Amino acid sequence: MVDVSIANLRPERAAVASQWQLIWWAFKRHRLAMAALFVTLALYIVALVPGFFAINDPTVQNARATFHPPQRIHLIDNSNGFEFGLHYFPLKLTRDPETLAAIYVEDTAKKIPIAFFGRGYTYSVLGLFQTDIHLIASTDKARPLFLFGADRLGRDVYSRVVQGAQVSLSIGLVGVFLSLALGIVLGGISGYYGGRIDFVMQRVIDFVLSLPTIPIWLALAAALPQGWPATLQYMMITIILSFTGWAQLARVVRGRFLSLRTEEFVAAARLDGVSEGRIIFRHMLPSFSSHIIASMTLAVPAMILAETSLSFLGLGLQPPTISWGVLLREAQNIRSIATAPWLFLPGLAVVIAVMALNLFGDGLRDAADPYNK
Amino acid sequence: MLKFIVKRLFWMIPSLFAVSFLAFVLIQLPPGDFVTTYIATLASSNEVVDQNTAAQLRERFGLDQPMLVQYLKWVWGIVTHGDFGISFEWQQPVSGLIWERMALTLVLALASLIATWALALPIGVYSAVKKYSIGDYAFTAFTFFGLSIPSFLLALVLMYVAAVEFGQDVGGLFSSQYETAPWSIGKMYDLLTHLWLPVAILAVSSTASLIRVMRANMLDELPKPYVTTARAKGLSEFRLLVKYPLRIALNPFISTIAWLLPNLISGSVVVAIVLNLPTAAPLLLQSLMAQDMYLAGAFVLLICALTLIGSLISDILLALVDPRIRLE
What we know:
heterodimer, A: alpha+beta, four-stranded antiparallel β-sheet, two-stranded antiparallel ribbon, 14 helices, about 60% helix, about 10% strand, B: mainly alpha, MetI-like fold, two-stranded antiparallel sheet, globular
């Protein structure tokens, strides 16, 4: 954005600031990236305790609410005088006399207030303890609130999107950490030793990068038995995604190692008789960790998109696991989206999450090199 | 130059073998084989297959031999007479099933590649030259959006809009009267009228990323002294751009073919399945589900080979454009 170095702005503070402080200052001035950071944080908080943010139990089916459309939340009620407070009206099902198509009309006679920190279904927080307190809860259990409508089986789409955030967002993180582990080890070896090892490793990386990822993932995912438990399936899908994801990170790590290998401070450390492990982890790694973190942040959204695509095709996570890709499977045929376009809403969640992570990663990458502006 | 090309071609051989081995291992991974799946399908319609018949089937398809033998036989067949084996499910040679679909996959990928280039190049240059203008912001917003939306979602939304707003079915690549017809001018024209939608869907995300590459490259070049010199000599702004900075900025652009093609083909898999296009992808998915291993293997192999060739072309183009690379 602004081409002025931070060091020029606050010379006395910049002189003693740590690298991370400089990065933070550079990042803060990138307003879009800051906004993206807050959205990302908010999403991951939701993913941490989805039960708290959900309204209805995401797994409960409701035969009377099949393809129930989204409901509006009202703030001001003028029916009998002026009343202020969040509330909604249950929808009454009527049928078109000619086509028998379902028509939902707001039943304004039955106002249902919404309670903050009210009680709903019981969920567990990170497997530690159970509670039934939700951020927002309906005060009428018999007439639940469908913020994003309901699906084919009458399950609440909003609560399912919130619950799906946990799997979809975490799979990106876990997958990236797996890729990173592979990428650092292989890219590090390649860049640190150079020579023949580097040559072979480079060919392998080029090879992996030139493979089309989705057909490979499809083939790998098709090898997973259908009946596996959800956690095992989750682990396998992350492993499959990182199977091709590591090469990108390995390339970044190798490039950094190669350029740092000839730096004076590395040569000095070596002459001092420092062990190789210590040179790598104490001297070299800190000076490019910011770059790696930026590359990682940019790899997370790619993983999320990959999981979504795989699950959408039916080869990724399987129901009853709830992820955004699994939810979008409901929107697969044109008939159901024509009657219930709100089934696209999980897709909106994907777009928002991926966009926020991309913008955040971009800002981080720009800020990652505070000395080089 | 010739030496470079020959060396690069030589490298293709181990890569192709690696790809073929990978494809074979991938399709061998699922527990059980086609016969197991076949028996399971029959069992669901209450037919019982005894062990003897199963063993006979395995023997006929060569499934009872060790994996390496099966692999070598398979590769030998492909190399010597283009025989990819037999599709168990379709009961006919794989080579009869794949070529038209692979050709359509290639057409789709190339059309998307051309569309991507045709859009990204001028937009990227415009965004860099008119930095921070309204147009630049609009295109930047587009790139962020384009990179964030999964292609299948875009395909679904467009299908929904076409079906609900215009009452049109946009799936497929051909109108019904041409689907099984032999190739003709009319069929070609019909293909073109259907091709634009999947191409547009595929081009969105790749265009978005290429615009950003192009814009960044141009922004690096524009403030350099040689641009000022050229301007001082009185060159018109357009000629100046095309003659100097664009040529240098184009360099990383060419190297992107290497990853653009795998990306496009990857993306086309999901889009093709959603839009039900007669390309490789829907059949690949179906054959993977049915463990029809030679068919799936042929598709995985050919799709990977396609991207390897893409990276070969990009390397050669790059060497043609940039003398530093071929002299290395």
